[in-house]
Amino acid sequence: MKRVAIAGAGIIGLASAWKLARRGWRATVFDSREAAREASWAAAGMLAPGGEIDSNAALARMAIRSLGLYPEFVRDLEEDSGLTVEYQSCGAVEVAFDEPGLAALTAKAARQSAIGIASEPCRYCNWEARRYPADCIVDPLSVNEALVAACNQRGVEIREHEPVTEVVGNGSGVRTLQGEYVADRVLIAAGAWSSTLFPGLPPVYPVRGHLLYFDMEPGLLTTIVRNRHTYLLQRESGGIVAGSSMEDTGYDRTLDTAVIEDIHRRAAKLLPALADAKPMDYWNGLRPATDVGPVLGRLGATNVWTAYGHFRNGILLAPDTAQGIAEEFGEG
Ligand SMILES: Cc1cc2nc3c(=O)[nH]c(=O)nc-3n(C[C@H](O)[C@H](O)[C@H](O)COP(=O)(O)OP(=O)(O)OC[C@H]3O[C@@H](n4cnc5c(N)ncnc54)[C@H](O)[C@@H]3O)c2cc1C
Q: 176: domain CATH number?
């Protein structure tokens, strides 16, 4: 049985470990802290090429493929974990508040249409809007929980509080704070911390984002509603998640009251019922950004692979990323 050592137990590392274990690999995943407590824990869970991708054709192809894989990904995950994953095929509506906003939205829709992202004009409340019928929502916490359970079920070892300090040789294992682990291949999937783990990797930097959570009646929103980078979505329990922000604050995860108030104000413009509601919770996380998009695949002739830099779309892109890795690795 071949061994793979994976640095990072976020959605990307866990999904890859699970898929590899299903192909007979013996996977060990190392994380600096508990599994799935960084960006993958913080995410809203939109699976939204329509809301997130403007004109990047390669990213659109990957996103559309990954969105298409989601129903099967969820079904297999539920089967292996015995847990329920909250997945809603609900579409999205992007509104324009004024004429320039509508012109920008229409121009964006034309660019998106050329790269395979469909939308149609509609109305939302009193505003002109576009509907993106294919966008979906998942509850990332339910995905993460199911991934950990499915990994356990398939014999993946998850070693928490054991940071990888370096990759040994050209991928013959990893060194961690606790010792050395020998493997046939190494996968670097440590989100915003990935690029220091092996020489010459494209740099990754953290882009902080805050989210707010309001306890509301279920059924208030039947779709994602957004205006540019302000968005709302509703969990089945009724909780409305409102986002977000893009902050260049390094690895600092201190909560910022001014940012939280700004998101609340923007969210209330989209859904006036939120104006007087008090957020029940708020949090932030660090998106792994690069200048080159997701950094995926084998590093030259080494036995080191990378899967990081998914920035705003790692929840969406996880099924395609994990499947790509599993296909390249083959049987274990
Ligand atoms: C506010 C916010 C909202 C978002 N909303 C969405 C959304 O709606 N849809 C979407 O698709 N995406 C969304 N994202 C983006 C998404 O969360 C990320 O792209 C995705 O979670 C990245 O997953 P990852 O596994 O690469 O990174 P992470 O989840 O950050 O996991 C990396 C892991 O590596 C570990 N690690 C770090 N250093 C080491 C080391 N040396 N050794 C071992 N382990 C290490 C960390 O502890 C961490 O657990 C959002 C992100 C934020 C912050």
A: 3.50.50.60
Within 6 A (CB) of ligand 1 lie: 7-13, 30-33, 37-40, 42-46, 163-164, 189-193, 209, 211, 243-244, 285, 287-288, 308, 310-316
Structural domain containing residue 48: 1-88+136-204+290-332
Alpha-carbon distance 84 to 8, whole Å?
24
169 inside domain: yes
275 occurs within a structural domain: no
Domain count, the chain: 1
**258 assigned to some structural domain:** no
Exposure of 58 in the CB half-sphere (CA atoms within 13 A): 5
Residue 86, exposed/middle/buried by CB under 10 A (0-12, 13-18, 19+)? middle
The residue whose C-alpha atom lies closest to atom 53 belonging to ligand 1 is 285
**pTM of full prediction above 0.90:** yes
- Residue 126's pLDDT band (boundaries 50, 70, 90)? confident
Q: Average of pLDDT values for 180-208?
A: 97
- Preceding amide of 244 cis, omega within 30: yes
- Tell me, in angstroms, the distance from the centre of ligand 1 to residue 102's CA: 33
Cα of 243 vs centre of ligand 1, distance in Å, is 16
pLDDT digits (tens, 9 = 90+) for 226-236: 999 999 999 99
- pLDDT tens for residues 52-87? 999 999 999 999 999 999 999 999 999 999 999 999
